[in-house]
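Page 42, continued from yesterday. The earlier attempt failed because a stray header line got pasted into the input along with the sequence. Redoing it now with the clean sequence only.
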Amino acid sequence: MRELPEVSVSIITYNQRELVGRAIDSALRQETSFPFEIIIGDDCSNDGTQDVLRDYKARYPDKIQLILHPVRYKNEVPGRTNNTTNLLNCRGKYTAMLDGDDYWTDPHKLERQYRILEDRPDIAYCLHDARMAYHQTPKYEPYIRKMSEKVNCPPTGVYSQADLAMRNVLAPHIGSIMYRTDQLRDLPDWFYKVIAADYALLLHLSRNGSIYYDERDDAAYYISPAGFQQVFRKNPTHLHQELRDIETYNKHFPATRGSAQGTRGKAILHFHLYQHYRDEKENRRAARHLYRVFRHDPLFVGQLILSSLKGNKGYRPASKRANKSAEKSAEIRS
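This time it went through. C-alpha cells are written below.
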C-alpha cells in the first residue's frame, strides 16, 4: 500500500505536448521533507500529450497518477470536468495546483507553503507572485514582468477575502496556490457554470480563513495566443457569460461589489462585445455595448481614445504607469 502523501500536486492539461513536460519536471524537482504525489488530468488531448504523460508515468510510477479523459464533455465550460475530477482525486492533506503550460521556478516552493499551513491553522491557503512568460516575449516585455505589477507589488503578509475580492491588492495566479484539501470537497453549483474557474475557486476557498501571500515569484505564468482566455475572449457567448459571472460573484461574495477592477472588467467585456458586433455590422447591438462601456468606466474610454491618438491599436495588457507604480512601491519596501 502506497504511503499517503502530505501534498497532492494537481496538474491539468489539454493539447500541451511541447509544454507539459516542463510543468511536470518543475514539480518533480521540488525538495521536500514530506511525501507528495502528482495527479495529472488530461482533457482528451489529440496532439500526443497523453503519450508524453504515459512516458512520465512509466518513469515515475510511485509519484505520478494519471486521469486521462477519453472524450471532451459537451454542455460544460471546456475543461471543467477535467479540473474538478483532478482536484477531487487529490489525497494529500494539502493540494497545490499547476496548469500544464505553467511551471514552478523554485524547488522549495512546496516546502515553504507546507510549513506555513502547518504552523497557521487560520490560513486557508497560500499564494505567491509569478513571472509572466509570454509566447512572444519581446513584444510584451516592456509592459509587465510580474503578476503583482497589476496591483503595485503587495508585500509578503496575510490578507483577507476582501483584499482578494476587490482585486486591487492581490493578483492571484492559480499555479501559486496551496490549500487545505478537505476545504474543497463540496463545490457549489454555481462553480460549474462560471468561465474563470481559478478566481471562483480562490473566492470559494477564502471563506475558510485568511490568505498568506509571498511576494517571491516562484512560478512562471505562460501566456499564449492559443490560451483559454485569449481564445474565448473572441467568443461573444463566453463574453456574455463572463458578465453573468461578475453578477454571480457579486451575489455570493458581497465584497466584490465595490471592486474597481470588477468595474473595469465589465467595461472591457462590453468593449470586446462592441468590437465583435461592430465587425459583424450589428450596429444597434454594438452601440448598446459601447454605451455600457461609457456607463461602467468613463476613464477606460478616455484611455482607449488616448491610446488611439498615440497610434496604438486595441487594449494593451498593462500600462507603463502601472510599472512605474510597481517600481515606486518596491523602492518604498526596500
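Notes: The radius of gyration is 20 Å.
Reminder to self: strip header lines before submitting.
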